[in-house]
Specification:
Alpha-Beta Plaits; 4 helices
C-alpha cells in the first residue's frame, strides 16, 4: 500500500528529504478549464478579451507566472525551486470555455508539478477576478496535472 510522502512515521506533516536525490531535468504541464459563458466570450477582440480592467489573458498569463514562482511560499511542504522556464497559454475551447496551460521546467532534485498546477490556478483565478463584474456564473471547472517527467515516476494523463 502506498503511503503519503508528506507524513512521517509519527503521523505528522513533514517535508520530503531530497538531499540524496539526483539533479535531473524536471518538467510538468497543468491545465485549468474556465467556464466564462457566451456573453463574456462575445467581448473578445481577435484572440484577446479586453475589459475595463485591461487585457484579461495577458494579465492572467503574468499572474500565472508570478504564482508559479511563489509556489514554495504558498504550499507549506513544497520545496522552493527556481524555475528555468515557465510558459502559460490561454485558448478558447468553445463558445463558453477557455483552457489555460502552464508548462514549467527546472533542473533540480525534486519535481515541479506543484508549480505548474499553481500557475494554471492563479491564471484561472485572475480571469475570474477580471471578468466577475460581467457575471458571477464563471466556474473554474477543472485544474489538473497533464504530465510530469524527470523524477522516479513519469506521468501522462490519458484523456478519454
Amino acid at each position: 500500500m502506498k503511503k503519503l510522502s508528506h507524513i512521517n512515521d509519527q503521523g505528522q506533516a513533514s517535508m520530503v528529504h531530497v538531499g540524496g536525490k539526483q539533479v535531473t531535468l524536471r518538467k510538468a504541464k497543468a491545465r485549468a478549464i474556465v467556464f466564462l459563458g457566451r456573453s463574456i466570450l462575445q467581448e473578445m477582440e481577435g484572440s484577446e478579451l479586453q475589459l475595463a480592467k485591461g487585457s484579461v489573458f495577458q494579465t492572467a498569463i503574468l499572474a500565472g507566472i508570478m504564482g508559479a514562482k511563489q509556489t514554495g511560499q504558498l504550499i507549506p511542504l513544497c520545496h522552493p525551486v527556481g524555475m528555468d522556464h515557465c510558459d502559460l497559454t490561454i485558448e478558447v475551447l468553445d463558445e463558453e470555455r477557455i483552457q489555460i496551460i502552464c508548462s514549467v521546467s527546472v533542473e533540480a532534485k525534486t519535481g515541479i508539478e506543484m508549480e505548474a498546477l499553481t500557475g494554471a490556478s492563479v491564471a484561472a483565478l485572475t480571469v475570474y477576478d477580471m471578468c466577475k463584474a460581467m457575471s458571477h456564473d464563471i466556474v473554474i471547472q477543472e485544474v489538473c496535472l497533464l504530465e510530469k517527467s524527470g523524477g522516479k515516476k513519469n506521468y501522462k494523463r490519458h484523456e478519454d
